[in-house]
Amino acid sequence: MKYLYSEKNNFIYKLNTSTVVFFIFTLFLLSLIFTHPIYLGTLFIITTLMIITSGNWLEWKGYLRLSIPIVIMIILVNSIFVKTGSNVIYQGPTLPFIGRLRITLEALAYGGAMGLRLIIIISLFCLYTYTVQPDKFMKLFSRFSSKIIFIVILSIRLFPLLIEDYKRIIEVQKTRGVKINKGKWIDKIKNALPIISVLLLSSLERSFEQAESMYARGYGSGKRSIYQKDIKRRRDYIITISTIIGLASGLCIFTAGQGSYSYYPKLSNPSLLDYRLYSILVITMILPAILNWGWKKWPILKSKI
Amino acid sequence: MADIKIQNLTYTYPEKKEKSLNNINLEIFPGEFVLVVGGSGSGKSSLIRSIAGLAPNFYGGKSTGNINIKNKNLKKIDRRDLVQTLGIVFQNPESQLVMTDTEQEIAFGLENIEMPEKIIKRRIMEVTSALSLSNFKNSFITQLSGGQKQKVALASVLAMQPDILLLDEPTSQLDPIAGEEILTMVRRLNEENGTTVVLVEQKLERCFHFADRILIMENGEIIKDSKDISEIGKWSAEKNKSYIPPLSQLFAKAGYDHIPLTVKEGRNLINREKNNVYNKEEKRKTCESRKRKLKPASKENPILSIKNMWFNYKTKEEILKNINLEIEKGSFTVIMGENGGGKTTLLKTISGLLKPTKGKVEIQGKNTKKLQVEEIAKEIGYLSQNPKDYLFLPTVREEIQFTLDNLQIENRENIDKILEQLEIKKFADLNPRDLSTGERQRVALSTVLASNPKMLLLDEPTRGLDYDLKEKLGKILKELQKQGTAILMVAHDVEFAAEYADEVVLLYEGSIIEKGNKQDLLTKSTFYSPQISRLFSDYEDGIVTVQQGLEALSKYNQEVKHEII
Fold first, then answer.
1. What is the nearest CA distance from B89 to chain A, expressed in angstroms?
2. Which of the 8 DSSP states describes residue B101?
3. Same domain (yes/no): B485, B506
4. CA–CA min distance B94, chain A (Å)
5. Do residues A21 and A134 share a domain?
């Protein structure tokens, strides 16, 4: 089994892990605090731009395929069950449990906005998975609690091993006549027992061996140092500062109440209130994409930042 | 000043009654390359663990006696100092690596002893280039091959710059080429950096010649400690023990005074003594006579028949290409070939775990396409590489019963017969997971044999076994063959194939490139031929087994003696 992360040759992958994580976190936070459709739409465009820039378009398509049906479900459920809202688009027969079918424009719009927010979050998760190396991410936090972080790193490392073990054990037990996925659910559980037992026993034995190897390399002998091979370049400072400005402008928009939007009882006027803050937000958050484009166009930029 | 000095060391594992180490006294000097040899359960690993301070500090148990590392009592050495004096590499590459990528793994030990970042960076640079891992610095551990993983394990230990390197069967889980590479690196460290090496290893032919000193262990004691290979050779031949490589054993048994360690030395020896007594005409004659001894296999009703079979995983490239193979009752065939050449996949298509994409596999005339794995399992036994994958029940007997229950076989008389045949009857009521590697493997084999299969598939069954265990396995397989079971085995182990198999199949990039009897195939090859046949290649054709070698050698020896008289 392979990890999802693999380094690609573009600007995003040449950033320090902390810079990328901070950038993705900012987008995530903004997508949570904004309810305004224009802001959510803008965040969606920024996220899409970042995914394309980082060369993960194909990977993202898989995520979209999975999330779009969920989004449609959200819109449907919200518009069927929430009957508030003044603009009635459709009024239908009385249904059991639901009552009279009454679909309003407001409920539809609200469902749409929430669906969009979900797509942004899933896309950010996709961006994180493909652009942040798990070890490096964990190491960012090891200054706070090295033990917990270490457990997480070890689990990430063990997971693919476990999957491999599982596949192998299934094959072996099949040749011993164990019928997998056959019969009633109770048979299935019974048949899974040998596989789970072997998996558990082997994992326990392996953890013991791993612990021995760790002990033999001095783990737990006192305070640890942290080795981080990532270096920070000028580009990291540029992106970090611009992301801070972006985040600040986003928070200003939020505290001024411009980021929220009232869907019920009647859709309010969606026009923007402060073009200056909005432009700052957009420019700062698409800066990585702009720099990636500039980097490709003028190779000299590579050595400068 | 000795690097390691052990006095009256006795060690018992927790919850065990018998001592794993008994009154060990040993001194190892700086720069020495010490090879520790012994059967499974002889105390080799316990010795290494004791020197590394793992037994009893990590394992628990009781330990008496004294161990001094560089003149300092082991108990008084701070753990941080110890890990920088002494490094240990274990058997299984998979279970000694804990981080996700190579660089972080190498840094792990250094972080533990609080090395500053700058030094860590330098050490990583040094070890990765020394062990030619530079290209894999950023690779994920899971994406590395077994050999590369073991190199990373070695690198992570070497990064701590230890003066003493302990290795506990570091190549037992690797294929021969990767194993060779690791041992060559260890040898270089010993020769060029003066690192003291204590190596436990099963494949003696790979490392016997570069050891300065050999320790032989039995029942927790060091029963032989010598620097003189010939002495050990003679001693070993006298006691009929397999503590020396097959080639040396051959000369020791034939009564030679000087025991060679490599094929080159052996050939020189024969050359000197024999003065080319045989001519070419005679050479051909001996070859023909040996071949005639092989009985021709019956071509009627083969157990297995594979016709124009192709296999590929979904959307991936072809793994097996146009395979045609017939296996008869009572035959013993070994499939050999490079890693990733499709050997294991071929076994899986026969056992029904994978279905061919094109062509067909027939078992006793029945196409396997529509058969379930468990239906095929009644006819064809499959022993995978890892015996642990089979074992989960509290006793050996229950393991066998489990297979019989699953396959709905009522007849239980077979159980005791199999237990006896595989010499595991005494373990029948023990937990299989508590047994040693060789014993576990025989238990796994017993669960496979329970259904009395007509054909047995084995995937690398000799991996991790010492000579004695291999011999035991070989004899068991021969016995099964005699009873009419067809045996088809995947192996890297040329020596084993030469000794026990009858036919050899060479698989390359998913195609069978040659199939024939072992005399033909194993003597004409440079790499796929056993030491014995390489030894005699100038004088006689068709020598592949130790017995044949022994006959030839004894003959030469007598002739030489005759000439002298």
1. 8
2. B
3. yes
4. 9
5. yes
Short-list A48, A51, A44, CA closest to A12: A51
Q: B291 versus A232: which is more confidently predicted? A: A232
Identify whether B472 is part of a domain: yes
Identify whether residues B311 and B443 lie together within a single domain: yes
User: Which residue from A159, A153, A151, A155 is spatially nearest to A136, judged by alpha carbons?
Assistant: A153
**Cβ–Cβ contact B434 with A under 8 A:** no
Q: How many CB pairs under 8 A join A and B?
A: 176
Task: Order across the sheet with B503-508: list the strands.
Answer: B380-383, B455-459, B486-490, B332-336, B503-508, B511-517
pLDDT at position A1 = 43
Whether B96 has its CB under 8 Å from any CB of chain A: the answer is yes
Would you give the end-to-end CA distance of chain B in angstroms? 51
Which three-class secondary structure string do you get for B136-167? HCCCEHHHCCHHHHHHHHHHHHHCCCCCEEEE
A55 at B interface, C-beta within 8 A: no
- Shared domain for A149 and A211, answered yes or no, is yes
**Mutation site for A-interface testing, chosen from B69, B154, B401, B406 by largest number of A Cβ within 10 Å:** B406
- Is some CB atom of chain B closer than 8 A to the CB atom of A228? yes
- On whether the CB atoms of residues B106 and B53 are closer than 8 A, the answer is no
- Res. A205: pLDDT tops 80: yes
How many domains are contained in chain B?
Answer: 3
* Residue in B with minimal Cα distance to A171: B353
User: What's B495's domain CATH number?
Assistant: 3.40.50.300
How many angstroms away from the CA of A10 is the closest CA of chain B? 17
Point out which residues pair with B81 in neighbouring strands.
none
User: Chain B, 518-537: which have a CB under 8 Å from a chain A CB?
Assistant: none
Does B479 share its domain with B467? yes
Instruction: Please tell me which residue of chain B has the smallest CA distance to A151.
Output: B98
Q: Is residue B181 part of a domain?
A: yes
Find chain B residues with C-beta within 8 A of A211's C-beta.
Answer: 58
Flag whether B298 is in a domain.
no
100-119 of B, contacting A, C-beta below 8 A: 100-101, 103-104, 107-117
In a domain, A6, yes or no: no
Residue B358: the pLDDT is 92
Domain match, B39 and B165 both = yes
Distance CA A277, CA A280 (A): 5
DSSP B286-330: HHHHHHHTSPPPP-SS-SEEEEEEEEE-TTS-EEEEEEEEEE-TT
Q: Does a structural domain hold residue B66? A: yes
Distance of CA B176 to the CA centre of its chain: 9
Q: Do B98 and A156 touch (CB under 8 A)?
A: no
Of the candidates A164, A192, A216, which is a domain's last residue? A216
- Please give the residue range of the domain that contains residue B447: 304-529
Last residue of a domain, one of A190, A216, A242: A216
B400 and B266 within one domain: no
Which of A2, A135, A220 minimises the CB distance to B101? A135
**Closest-CA residue in chain A for B50?**
A216
Sign of CA dihedral A237, A240, A244, A250: positive
CA-to-CA distance for A172 and A163, rounded, in angstroms? 14
Over chain B (565 residues), what is each successive 10-residue block's mean pLDDT? 94 90 95 92 92 92 94 94 95 88 93 93 94 89 89 95 95 86 93 95 86 93 90 84 84 83 86 60 53 53 91 83 93 89 92 92 90 89 91 92 88 86 89 86 91 92 85 91 94 89 92 88 79 82 82 73 55
Q: What's the complex ipTM?
A: 0.86
CB of B140 less than 8 A from some CB of A: yes
* pLDDT score at B280: 47
Omega within 30 of 0 (cis) for the link into B302:
no
β-sheet bridge partners, residue B196: B164
Q: How far is A188 from chain B (nearest CA, A)?
A: 14
B181 and B222 in a single domain? The answer is yes
